[in-house]
């Protein structure tokens, strides 16, 4: 049904500050990996759906990030703009295993071709 996931280790969860982010550079673009106060992690494109602001430099609150440029709030779970704003940022499958962050490399490649 879906292509087999190829999980790639992109570092330790602890390498990201709580309520912070780290940018993972892929051949096709930058992905922002966020850590929430509850030690969850989410990966989305480091581009705001409004005017491509660097979401990795935004403020993390709950499971959302506020864009540093014009304060849109983007859901880390769905990549969608919240409230009255309309827009969508690509999300990527990410899992935590033994304190390591694993990103689905196949999904990264597929997503970027379509973007
Ligand atoms: S670029 Fe993110 S809110 Fe405008």
In words, what does this structure look like?
The structure is a single chain. With 115 residues, this protein is mostly beta strands. It has one helix spanning 105-114, and strands spanning 7-12, 20-26, 29-35, 41-45, 59-61, 64-66, 73-75, 91-92, 94-97, 100-104. The protein has a single domain, classed as Rieske Iron-sulfur Protein (3-layer Sandwich), CATH 2.102.10.10. It has 1 helix and 10 strands; from the N terminus they run E-E-E-E-E-E-E-E-E-E-H. A 4-stranded antiparallel β-sheet has the order 2-3-4-8, covered by helices on one side. Strand 3 (29-35) and strand 4 form a beta hairpin. The longest helix has 10 residues, at 105-114. The chain is globular. The structure holds FE2/S2 (inorganic) cluster (FES). FE2/S2 (inorganic) cluster binds next to loops.
């Amino acid at each position: 049904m879906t292509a087999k996931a190829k999980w790639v280790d992109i570092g330790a969860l602890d390498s990201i500050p709580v309520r912070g982010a780290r940018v993972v550079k892929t051949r096709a673009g930058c992905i922002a990996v966020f850590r929430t106060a509850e030690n969850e992690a989410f990966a989305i494109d480091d581009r705001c759906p409004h005017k491509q602001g660097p979401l990795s430099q935004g403020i993390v609150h709950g499971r959302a990030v506020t864009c540093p440029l014009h304060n849109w709030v983007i859901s880390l779970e769905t990549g969608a703009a919240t409230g009255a704003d309309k827009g969508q940022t690509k999300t990527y499958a990410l899992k935590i295993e033994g304190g390591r962050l694993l990103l689905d490399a196949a999904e990264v490649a597929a997503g970027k071709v379509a973007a």
